[in-house]
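Narrative summary of target 7.
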Amino acid sequence: VQLVESGGGSVQPGGSLRLSCVASGTLSGVNTLGWYRQTPGKERELVADITKVGTTTVVDSLKGRFTISGNNAKDTVYLQMNSLKPEDTAVYYCRADVYDHVEFKIYWGQGTQVTVSS
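Modeled conformation, tokenized:
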């Protein structure tokens, strides 16, 4: 499974960005696609995820500002980020949780930088 993120950039506080993650390869075993973020010196943390049946989760602290969605083909996941704050500045990573009938595997994208600054 390969994951390619896009949509990051610089935005002023209060602005919006929409991140996209396109998954390719053998996708039949993908259970969940998610977004994580990481800042220097901190561990990568969950932002939101969506299961193969469409169940979504957004961490409580981001509810109301961030929304995750996927396309019908289940090969693309989006993260809509509104009312962005400087503390949202981070590298955002796409993650795929996969079960290939032998073992569980986790795949990561290369990350996309989001900078919120005036």
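The first strand starts at residue 2 and ends at 6.
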